[in-house]
Amino acid sequence: MVREVRARFSGDPLGYTWAFVTPLVWIASIAVIFSLVGRLTPIHTDIISFLIAGMLPYTIFRTTISATMRISKAQKNMRYFANISANDILVASTLMELMNAILIYIVLMAGNELIFSHFEVADPAMTMFGFTLAWGLGASFGHMAVAFTQISEATVRFVPILLRPMFWLSGIFFVANELPGGLLNVMQYNPLLQAIEIMRSASFLGYSSRIADPLIPLAWIVGMNLTAVLIKTLTAKKQYNI
Asked: For residue 42, what are the contacts with CB-CB under 8 A and spacing of at least 6?
């Protein structure tokens, strides 16, 4: 985990500060856009709290995927140690992303309270559960994507293309209760939207999602990890002609 931090942030004047700068800039930019177009929050809360509960789960989802896709090259020398496996590196990298994200969440929530006097976490345990689901989805998707790179290196190019729509479909700018019935029936199977809906329902007393169901993201997490294990098993058998 220490090696991962050094690999990501060494040689830059801001260093680890970049982990905080990126979500801050995103949240500030979207808040300004909301103000310019007259967009109000769809639930009874302030704009910063609303965006934190949407942007942070999305951020941990994407950064965890990026971390897992990066480790095969950034930490390849660690594989020469007999007691360190690829799975060890994967777990260490994803856990570091979770720790980073929790720290960033605490700092942003504390800043929102100190500067704007807004702090909304109605159910801390369920809030962190939704947050952890978003991380688990990122770790599982990254695990599966790394497994697919053993079949084709083109996976590295396809992953960003596949993930780009998630920025608009994961509920950063809206809540599920706003969606019409037909669209809602389809969107409820979006696991990242589910994670964000669970987090928002737990954060805000005045919001109860119509679709929040932890079984959907949990099913995706299990399915993607099983797919990754299957692919790695099959490619290993092919490699050794078993």
From this structure: 174, 175, 177, 178
What distance lies between CA 215 and its chain's CA centroid?
A: 17
Can you tell me the distance from the alpha carbon of 67 to that of 74, in angstroms, rounded to the nearest whole number? Answer: 10
Q: Cα 162–217–39 angle (5° rounding)?
A: 70
Please check whether residue 194 is in contact with residue 133, taking contact to mean a CB–CB distance below 8 angstroms.
yes
Nearest to 67 by CA among 154, 159, 148, 4: 4
214 in Cβ contact with 129 (< 8 Å): yes
What are the two backbone dihedrals, phi and then psi, of residue 171, each rounded to the nearest 5 degrees? 95, 20
* pTM of the predicted model as reported, rounded to 2 decimal places: 0.89
* Distance separating alpha carbons of residues 14 and 30, to the nearest angstrom: 23
Is residue 102 within 8 A of residue 19, CB to CB? The reply is: no
10-residue averages of pLDDT along the chain (242 residues): 66 66 85 86 92 94 90 59 73 88 92 92 96 97 92 89 91 93 94 97 94 97 96 78 54
Alpha-carbon distance 59 to 182, whole Å?
A: 28
Q: To which residue do tokens 């559960």 refer?
A: 129
Question: C-alpha angle with apex 26: 34 to 56, nearest 5 degrees?
Answer: 105
